[in-house]
Protein: Smu12A
Organism: Streptosporangium sandarakinum
Amino acid sequence: MDVEEATQKLRGWFSGRLPEDWFEGQPEIVLDREEIAVIGRLPVPSFADDVSEVERAATLEGGVQRFREETRERRVEIALEAERRFRRKVSWGVEVGDETVMFTTLSVPVMTRLRQSERRVLDTLVAAGVARSRSDALAWCVRLVGRHTDSWLADLRDALRHVDQVRAAGPDLDS
């Protein structure tokens, strides 16, 4: 089963399990080898024209926290069921306006080999106080690249989905 098919299966399963009044539309399902992230869209409250940006931000933050608290018990039940069924941890988040807030996420250690010049980059970030450790510095670098190359990474993921489809349509080597 390719990633797109697995994501569709998960989207269907979660759509069947989640209360209909939680999100606007279907939640986004983001899948990797270790984790399933379920990110639903919350409605943006309507504001009067004279409301300050500070009040808008506080209202959105309060709405996200209310949703998080009111749904916690049910989200835990659904996550435990999904984790048993799909053998991956489940993380939760919401989108409201142009903000995404993750309630839970999984941090997974990743081993890498770096040359001295690459380690010096990480050590400079640590020495400058940008990061607490090499691990934090590497995570900071990955977030920075991800933020500045979103469209390129999306194009690359689309290309990989196409490769998966072509592979699936190819000849069966076992027969």
